Amino acid sequence: MDAPTRTAPHRPAPPTVRLDTARTAPTPHTAAEPAHPTTAHDHHHGTATPHHPTADEDPHTRARTHLGRLWGVPATHTHLTAGADDTFDTLVRDTPLTPRDRIWTTPHESVARLHTLHTLRDRTRCRLEVVPLRPDGDLDLDWMRHHLDDDVALVSVTHLSPACGTVNPVTAIGRLLAPHRARYALDASHSAGLLPLDAAATGCHLLTADAFRFLNGPPDTGIAYTHPHPGAPAGSTPPPAPHPAAVTALADTLTHHTPAATHPHTDHLPRLRAALARTPGITLLPTGTRQAGILAFRHDHLDAGTLRHALARRAVLLSKTVAHEHPLHPASRTGAPALHASLHPATTAHDIDRLAHTLTEVLHAHTHPTPHPRTPPATPTPRTTPARPATPTPAPVRTLPTPRTTLPTPRTTAPAHSTPATPAPRSTPALRSVPAPAAALPALPGSAGPGTRTAPSLAAVPALATPTTPATTASGGHRPRTPPPAARRTRTAGRRGHLTLHRADHDTTTPHPPPGGQR
Questions:
Q1: Cα separation of 191 and 213, whole Å?
Q2: Helix runs in 280-437, H state only
Q3: How far apart are CA 87 and CA 85, in angstroms?
Q4: Residues of the chain with pLDDT > 90: what percent?
Q5: 187 class by beta-carbon count within 10 Å (0-12 exposed, 13-18 middle, 19+ buried)
Q6: Which of 128, 243, 285, 419 is most enclosed, with most CB atoms within 10 A?
Q7: Which one-letter DSSP state was computed for residue 208?
Q8: Cα→Cα distances 307→13, 185, 304, 331, 359, Å
């Protein structure tokens, strides 16, 4: 009886740890599930009353109501848009400025907003200035206070820096700009849903954010708040609106996240910073005195792309930041990409421990790679020659002798006055031979008749001997004289560089040309 086959127990894959919310938002759970009833605080009675969204309530109105409650502003000044960058470009690019006006931005600005500010500067010929950072990484408020005047027409500040997680003092900047004509634009794309923000307390005139990051909204959705300001462009086009289906999903998202964003949650950033600090070879990017939600780091010897893919194969997801995303930030001066870890309000301490453990495994695997087992060389097999099959010996063939008949060669003697016989010329397939004239070769003594090939002897043929030229001696006789050697002619083969190459040809047919150029 066959033994039962044992199968290994099925081990479920470990849950995926998502630490890339700042780059790619996770799947919103509110899109597939109905929104849970939330609680709205009744300021008049001091009791908590449940808020149940009704079916006949407009999703657009419901979303703007929750948005105003999230930022502490009137719902009539809020907008649902298709994205923060497009909204900023629509509401800023037509700002009326003069060449004497100035625009302030910070090193934390994204490349999309910098493109809008550069376009505005090129159109109006105004000046674009960057607020410097202090040695500790915070914005230099003293520099702003010293250089602030009525020429500053627009100030663009990021609440939470996506480069390294620095939290800028947006409320202090708003109090500094309040007595002046500057229009205050605030970017909350990476802080909405992560940090509490009171837009009215900051004193900003334009607040834009993406809803698909920490708010878990659908893709290509954004939110905005506008406050009337004399520096705003008159009659500007409204920001792009999202798809109606996205509005419904965003309304459910804001309904679910409004109370969660207003209540404090456990901050695991110190735990993450400590875990990365004790990992050998990890260097944290410099940040300011206050940091939240985002941490960027590099490895001394392993590039960010390789490290990110190795972590992803172990179900730990991080994102990668490159220099061109934040070209003004000090961390982008080296040009090397960095890893970007962002914490969601739902991130747990177990997720941080998984990241630390997996990162140690990956670095150890790259530092001490496992050698491949060496296979011992196989013993060479002696080479044997296969036996050839026996070939049957053919039977001997009996041949009869052929009678040899010798025909006498007729000897013909040509008369003296007859024309000597000319042997037939031998033609070669590659060369075409032309027979010599009949008078060139005399009759060969002892030659056979036509059709008979007989090799003559050079001694018996006086016509083939060395030709002699008759010469007259002093006594009047003739003596044989050897002809002079053929003239050696040298001609130039060609010039290459500064060297001249020559080639000698033995020409036996053309004599030296006579002097004077006559031939």
A1: 9
A2: 304-312, 349-367
A3: 5
A4: 35
A5: buried
A6: 285
A7: E
A8: 21, 37, 5, 19, 8
The CB-based long-range contact list for 116-125 (8 Å cut-off, 24+ gap) reads 116/85, 116/88, 116/89, 116/92, 117/92, 117/156, 119/93, 120/92, 120/93, 120/95, 120/154, 123/93, 124/95, 124/96, 124/97, 124/98, 124/99, 125/99
| Size of the chain in residues | 519
Beta bridge partners, 297, equal 284, 339
- Whether the pLDDT of residue 506 is over 50: the answer is no
Three-state DSSP class for 311? helix
- Is the pLDDT at 126 greater than 90? The verdict is yes
Q: Which of 172, 417, 422 is nearest to 288 (CA)?
A: 172
Residue 251, token pair as written in the block = 């309304």
Q: What is the pLDDT of residue 172?
A: 95
Is residue 71 predicted with pLDDT exceeding 80?
A: yes
Range with the poorest average pLDDT among 155-169, 282-296, 470-484 = 470-484
The three-state secondary structure class of 508 is coil
Q: Which residue has the tokens 């298709």?
A: 82
Alpha carbon 209 to its chain's center: 31
Q: What is the pTM of this model?
A: 0.64
